[in-house]
Write a structure and sequence with these properties.
Low-confidence stretches: none
Helix content: 40-55%
Strand content: under 5%
Structural class: mainly alpha
Mean pLDDT: 91
């Protein structure tokens, strides 16, 4: 399985505001990734979601 590579080129895409709940440990991990890559929390979340959807195993 391929691994996710976080990039800093997620500008210019249409966005929709939505509130979600995540656990504290996940929040901390995403915050750490965002800070270490000098990108926004939202950009990391979107990249993780896109990667997951693109690699979703269909039944």
């Amino acid at each position: 399985m391929q691994k996710l590579k976080i990039t800093n080129n997620q500008k210019g895409k249409e966005t929709i505001t939505r509130t979600i709940r995540i656990n504290g440990e996940t929040f901390d991990k995403i915050t750490e990734i965002a800070e270490s890559n000098d990108i926004s929390f939202n950009s990391v979340v979107n990249q993780i979601l896109e990667f997951g959807l693109n690699n979703l195993e269909e039944e």
